[in-house]
């Protein structure tokens, strides 16, 4: 399909706004004409629900808005609402998200296309509001699709496309859209929202193919079962669905979004200066912009370094990653997570990248740079980390593959 004319593209968008990521996601939920919203406050995602409550109270759109008594109730509400045929929205952060674990897991096992937002936050006692990815990462292996936005504009678009993917009958899986806490949820930047008529063409009303409704055939979802009956088959159905999402539905959905907006969107990666790169920095989320800045700075000195931003953690784009990195000599992973006691004592994203490259024809040297505990990186730290990668490649060995970058004192 040919790209739309510039006039068509201009007609598809509204005027530029200045919104936080929380406000942008709320706009996406309104544009998607969601039926049921389940809310419970916890920073830094709360602004989304505040904005939605204001919209509904002001008559901007209608949805059932339930203020729940806990995060567990939140996820139970949207699980059951999705089962009977409603388009749903939910969100949480940090330890609050973990409180809803039972319902989060059974939502995936029931293959219910709930869309939720994670405002990523440190998994500490409630006193730590720093940004980490571990709250979302704890659910990376239970059947939820997961992607990471870099700014409010992308947060809006990823939320809309999440509904398109999750509700596809070839998938029917829940979908988390992750926003780096504070850096995206609370920081405003320019956003150009699509017009409602464009979204209506892209995202038709949700129709649950197997609703829990006495008027339809007998259906059970997320039921208690004997393992000897359908336990393995139930999990294998999720495996098949996430493979279809990876290979078919996600590329189709983002191609459809590209066609109606005029944007050329790669579903899995955003790259910069990777064509001739000897070194690559792999990152996700908002701090990828810092990575791009350092790449530009080092390029001015003649260093061939590139930036590769991963958009989806689940499904993980293994073959696409190997293709991007096939000619590089060294890879640095910028990671806001930890995986204590894991192989090599590396972080989550580092071990994902490492596993993806295990059978690659060319395996570059890998280094892991962990920014944990909510302490923000500085540009100097990021630049020094990149120079450590370059020096390791020149020496032909990596003396210290995993580095905790921001800790005070020795990193032993």
Q: Main attributes?
A:
alpha/beta; Rossmann fold; 7-stranded mixed beta sheet; 6-stranded mixed beta sheet; disordered N terminus
Can you lay out the helices and strands and say which pair or pack?
Blueprint: H1 6-12, E1 17-20, H2 21-31, E2 36-39, H3 46-57, E3 64-67, H4 71-83, E4 88-92, H5 94-99, H6 101-109, E5 115-120, H7 134-137, E6 145-148, H8 152-166, E7 175-180, E8 188-191, H9 196-202, H10 227-261, E9 269-272, E10 279-283, H11 288-299, E11 305-310, E12 312-314, H12 318-324, E13 330-335, H13 348-356, E14 365-370, H14 379-395, E15 402-404
Parallel strand pairs: 2-3, 2-4, 4-5, 5-7, 6-7, 10-11, 10-13, 13-14, 14-15
Antiparallel strand pairs: 1-8, 6-12, 9-11
Helix pairs in contact: 2-3, 2-8, 4-6, 11-14
Average pLDDT reading: 91
In terms of per-residue confidence, which ranges show pLDDT below 50 for 5 or more consecutive residues?
1-9
**Beginning-to-end CA distance, first to last residue:** 55 Å
How much is the radius of gyration in Å?
21 Å
Characterize the main sheet. Answer: 7 strands, mixed
CATH topology of the largest domain: Rossmann fold
By DSSP, the count of extended strands is 15
SS content category: alpha/beta
Q: Please give the domain count.
A: 2
Could you spell the SSE succession in H and E letters? HEHEHEHEHHEHEHEEHHEEHEEHEHEHE
């Amino acid at each position: 399909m040919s790209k739309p004319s510039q006039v068509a593209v201009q007609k598809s968008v509204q005027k530029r706004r200045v919104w936080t990521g929380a406000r942008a996601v709320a706009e996406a939920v309104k544009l998607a004409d969601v039926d049921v919203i389940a809310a419970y406050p916890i920073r830094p995602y709360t602004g989304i629900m505040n904005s939605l409550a204001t919209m509904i109270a002001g008559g901007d759109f209608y949805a059932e808005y339930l203020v729940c008594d806990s995060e567990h109730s939140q996820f139970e509400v949207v699980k059951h609402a999705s089962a009977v045929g409603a388009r749903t929205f939910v969100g949480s952060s940090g330890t609050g998200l973990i409180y809803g674990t039972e319902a989060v897991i059974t939502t995936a096992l029931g293959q219910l296309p709930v869309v939720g937002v994670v405002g990523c936050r440190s998994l500490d006692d409630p006193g730590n509001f720093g940004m980490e990815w571990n709250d979302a990462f704890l659910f990376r292996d239970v059947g939820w699709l997961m992607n990471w936005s870099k700014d409010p504009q992308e947060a809006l678009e990823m939320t809309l496309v999440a509904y398109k993917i999750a509700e596809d009958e070839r998938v029917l899986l829940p979908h988390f859209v992750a926003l780096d806490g504070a850096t995206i949820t609370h920081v405003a930047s320019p956003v150009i929202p699509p017009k409602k008529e464009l979204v209506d063409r892209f995202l038709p009303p949700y129709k649950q193919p197997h609703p829990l409704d006495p008027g339809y055939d007998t259906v059970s979802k997320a039921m208690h079962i004997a393992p000897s009956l359908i336990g393995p088959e139930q999990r294998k159905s999720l495996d098949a669905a996430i493979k279809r999402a990876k290979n078919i539905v996600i590329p189709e959905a983002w191609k459809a979004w590209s066609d109606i907006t005029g944007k050329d969107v790669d579903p899995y990666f955003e790259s910069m200066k990777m064509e001739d790169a000897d070194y690559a920095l792999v990152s996700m989320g908002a701090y990828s912009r810092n990575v791009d800045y350092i790449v530009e700075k080092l390029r001015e000195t003649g260093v061939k370094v590139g930036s590769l931003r991963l958009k989806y953690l689940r499904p993980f784009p293994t073959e696409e990653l190997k293709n991007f990195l096939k000619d590089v000599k060294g890879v640095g992973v910028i990671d806001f997570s930890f995986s204590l006691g894991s192989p090599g004592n590396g972080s989550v994203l580092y071990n994902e990248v490492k596993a993806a490259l295990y059978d690659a024809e060319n395996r570059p040297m890998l280094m892991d740079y962990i920014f944990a505990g909510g302490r923000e990186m500085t540009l100097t730290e990021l630049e020094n980390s990149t120079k450590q990668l370059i020096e390791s490649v020149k020496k032909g060995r990596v003396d210290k593959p995993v580095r905790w970058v921001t800790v005070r004192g020795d990193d032993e």
